[in-house]
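As noted in the main text, all predictions were made from sequence alone. Below is one such record, for Acetylornithine deacetylase/succinyl-diaminopimelate desuccinylase-like protein.
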Amino acid sequence: MYQENMFLQAAIRDLAELVKIPSVSARAQDLETCAAHVESLLKSEGFVTEICAGEVGPFVVAETGNGPFTMVIYNHYDVQPEEPVELWSSPPYQLTERNGRLYGRGAADDKGEFISRLAGWRKYRQNNNDPLPYRLIWIVDGEEEIGSPSLTDFLQKRFPALKADVCWWEFGEIDSEGHPVVLMGFKGVTAIELQCRTARADLHSSFGALFDNALWRIATAVSSMRDESGRVLIDGFYDSIPDVPEAVEQLVATPPYTLFSLQSATGGQRLLDGTDENNFYRRLNLEPCLNINGISGGYSGEGAKTVLPAQASAKLDFRLVPEQQPLEIVTLVRKHLDKHGFGDIELIIHDAEVQAVRSSHEHWAVQQGLRLLKKHFGKTPIIQPSSPASGLAHPFVKEMGVTLFGAGLTHHGAMLHSPDENIIIDQLAKMIDFSAEFFETVAHQCEAEQSNREEAR
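Prediction:
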């Protein structure tokens, strides 16, 4: 019974108070209030804290300990909007327990992750009163759900010369069978829009015998960029991608789940040419891709309207791998359009900030983390070299030099960004215990290394 676990009880109370604050960054709601509450939680656990301004929401910084080893923990307190409210089974900003789960906006992403680590720190401190033998810096972002527009500048100004060893990333996963999934990297992203105009206004469709069609032109331009297998046809797109290390290739050689299970879970039916059981997991982790997010223009209302559209647009995103630079991809797209006779199509950049990163799982702290995850969850962890999605981790990896460590409690039915977002109470308890022992294990390793250095003098 979790009522007998005082650390779990306190964590649930803390999480309930955080969930109660509707810290929606998309509408800049209650961000200062939530930041102040996060700061008070960290300060009460012995951290030296401060709140730093961001463009939309403030950052909370907490520090403790000292030593040559530095661990950064990155979380965020902002959440996605709660809409559609009518699809929630309980009020979104009221933490509600049902059938062994805790429901509420932010229960998983990312307030639950933050609280699980804070509760683990609280448990660690109960039995360890000595000064922490390494430097621990906790950064809690208030803008993650809108792309962290201030994060890079904030890190450069607040930690201009910081070199760190490990960054415990904001989340990790638990799969449907209870295996912890440890994320070691993220893809980058470039999001653009193409716009085309062929006349002052829509024309009668009979003029299609003479004049070009804006929608047809946009569709032709987009279709020239990718083949049926998903391979991008833009000159130079793959040139900067280095060979994948053998250790990383081995991680994706044996998928932790089947292609059929992925299709069943997502409802995805039509596969790209050449995609099969043997290569789908590698593609998800290690290969870039191009997507059409939407095409608009002309008439799409009820019934027929025989017009020749004068204007059309398409929104695209590229998911990128390490060494592909988002802005360089934009340049290549522009060159491709011009080369293929689409010089009149305007290109608008929506996002070209997030670079891909990938860290080695061989770092000793990651290896200790994997050992402890297996101990506390009872299942062998899955090391995922890269999330198929994107995260703004590159300032930590590129500037601070950290190894990423994405371990957390976001299970595969957590309904992130959707109604009935939730975490499993039993997994919260396990993550608290894991976090406490992870803090302790890193401390012991740092103490041992310090002792070795003193003996060597």
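The first strand starts at residue 48 and ends at 52. The mean pLDDT is 95. These features were considered when defining construct boundaries for the mutagenesis experiments described in Section 2.9.
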